[in-house]
Design goal:
Layout: E1 8-14, H1 22-33, E2 38-44, H2 50-55, E3 61-66, E4 80-81, H3 83-88, E5 93-96, E6 102-105, H4 108-118, E7 127-130, H5 134-146, E8 151-155, H6 158-171, E9 175-179, E10 191-194, E11 214-217, H7 226-233, E12 237-239, H8 241-257, H9 264-276
Parallel strand pairs: 1-2, 1-3, 4-6, 7-8, 7-10, 8-9, 10-11, 11-12
Antiparallel strand pairs: 3-5, 5-6
Helix pairs in contact: 1-8, 1-9, 4-5, 4-8, 5-6, 8-9
Length: 278
């Protein structure tokens, strides 16, 4: 693929989208890679508007980042999806191939693994997941590759429990479920992945034990969360949502531009600066 000064476009789509840090990260990568002809925008698009949006894109488009609520809605509109995306029925990356096909991938899963590896977590004998949404299924897919034993998922309803056990069967991970009011028991696991919305784990901060293992809290705003602060105060390792966001964006940049490695450090600095300015 040829590069600058060729004009290429990429963007993040979702609803709501104004809060997205993706433009900051991708533009920082383009600057660092010298891709002066590339631009990266953001577009408010919901499920009903997605087919029309895709139909209107021309040959100058290189790729799309997708956030909620489009990660499943896009699948029927694509020409192919990778096994990683198929494993969790969620696409966060669309690449426009040179022959005009749309290929969907999921960089959240390898992004989670890369963020954990960066903090020295290569393998664990058991793990806990807080929550049961789309991010929780990606967490299970990541754990399928590094967890040698059982994963306990702490959930708020029987329906969510069934869902998580179903994902476990599909992904080859032994999943045990427990009610949310027992979530403090998660903290004995060597790895805890918190996938719940802002504020939901705040009441658990007081229950963090001395010398905890590793916490992966997927939120990046507000940051640090009360749970992450308590965890770090007690000497535990903390991986944050910005770590995940940057690592998955690195993989997107590499796929969309054909340039590797993407500039991880520059992208992280740009993300930290943007969050600090909010």
């Amino acid at each position: 693929m040829s590069h600058s000064p060729e004009h290429k476009k990429a963007a993040v789509l979702g609803s709501p989208i104004a809060h997205s840090l993706s433009p900051v990260l991708h533009r920082a990568a383009y600057d660092e890679l010298g891709l002066s002809g590339w631009e990266y925008g953001r577009h408010e698009v919901d499920e009903s508007g997605l087919p029309g949006f895709l139909d209107g894109l021309g040959s100058e488009w290189a790729g799309l980042s997708l956030t909620m609520p489009l990660k499943r809605a896009v699948i029927p509109l694509l020409d192919e999806i990778t096994p990683t995306a198929a494993s969790v029925e969620a696409v966060n990356t669309v690449v426009f191939t040179p022959d005009g096909r749309l290929r969907g991938d999921n960089t959240d899963i390898p992004g989670m693994l890369a963020a954990l590896r960066e903090r020295g977590v290569q393998q664990v004998e058991r793990a806990a997941v807080l929550g049961a949404g789309a991010t929780a299924s990606s967490a299970l897919a990541a754990l399928a590759r590094i967890c040698t034993g059982e994963v306990t998922a702490y959930v708020r309803s029987a329906a969510r429990a069934d869902e998580m056990r179903g994902w476990g069967e599909r992904l080859g991970v032994p999943v045990r479920t427990a009610p949310w009011d027992e979530a403090a028991a998660a903290f004995t696991a060597p790895l805890v992945i918190a996938t719940t919305p802002a504020g939901s784990t705040d009441p658990l901060a007081a229950a963090v034990p001395d010398r905890p293992g590793t916490l992966f809290d997927v939120l990046y705003e507000p940051w640090p969360t009360a749970l992450a602060t308590a965890w770090a105060d007690r000497g535990g390792a903390v991986v944050g949502g910005l770590d995940l966001l940057v690592h998955q964006a690195v993989l997107q940049v590499e796929q969309m531009t054909g340039r590797a490695p993407a500039p991880l450090a520059a992208m992280r600095r740009a993300g930290e600066a943007a969050l600090a300015a909010r």
